């Protein structure tokens, strides 16, 4: 049998499929890129709350059990989450090895670039591995200018039950009014308008 008889379209397709599956299994960056492209066609849109001002004022308290939630900011200083009251806080729990985190990061970076000059909105990209050096290199390599935070206390399960990425939005009263587990496209206008509306309420 000649070599060209052995090489059929189905063999080529099978080979490409095997390479694709292996890349999806062993390369978080490749898997992130694939899911990123799925996001561009409209998948993984977060459900944006559209309630009244009163409903937006309600939510999960940041300090229900009188336990302060602490983070280290980009400069390494410990901050209390309750000190952010008066501002809308966008918190994303993520890790550098997490493909869905990698996939959604460009959309968060786009949102951040559009709102970073709004002093009523705070972005906190919380590296759950607590490895600031690695997470900052991750941001630098991809030209993201998102602020990296690390946990400095335990995180309540009402905030993050272990799934990453998990994204929260706290209103000006320190209440969680949005929670999304799994990746999402946060660059859409609806989500941006949701954050902007919260700053005005």
UniProtKB/TrEMBL annotation:
The chain crosses the membrane at residues 7-26. Keywords: Membrane, Transmembrane, Transmembrane helix. The keyword Metal-binding does not apply. The keyword Amino-acid biosynthesis does not apply. Residues 32-200 form the Thioredoxin domain. It comes from the Bacteria. This is TlpA disulfide reductase family protein. It comes from Albibacterium profundi.
């Amino acid at each position: 049998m000649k070599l060209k008889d052995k090489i059929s379209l189905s063999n080529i397709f099978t080979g490409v499929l095997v390479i694709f599956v292996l890349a999806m299994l062993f390369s978080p960056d490749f898997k992130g890129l694939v899911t990123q492209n799925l996001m561009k066609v409209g998948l993984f849109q977060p459900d944006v709350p559209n309630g009244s001002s009163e409903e937006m004022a309600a939510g999960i308290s940041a300090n229900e059990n009188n336990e302060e939630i602490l983070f280290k900011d980009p400069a390494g200083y410990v901050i209390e989450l309750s000190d952010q009251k008066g501002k809308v806080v966008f918190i994303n729990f993520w890790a550098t090895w997490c493909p869905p985190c990698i996939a959604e990061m460009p959309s968060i970076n786009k949102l951040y670039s559009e709102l970073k000059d709004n002093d009523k909105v705070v972005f906190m990209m919380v590296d759950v591995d607590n490895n600031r050096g690695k997470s900052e290199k991750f941001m630098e390599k991809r030209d993201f200018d998102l602020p990296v935070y690390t946990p400095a206390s335990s995180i309540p399960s009402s905030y993050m039950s272990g799934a990453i990425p998990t994204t929260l939005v706290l209103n000006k009263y320190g209440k969680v009014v949005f929670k999304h587990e799994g990746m999402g496209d946060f660059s859409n206008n609806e989500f941006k308008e949701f954050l902007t509306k919260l700053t005005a309420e």
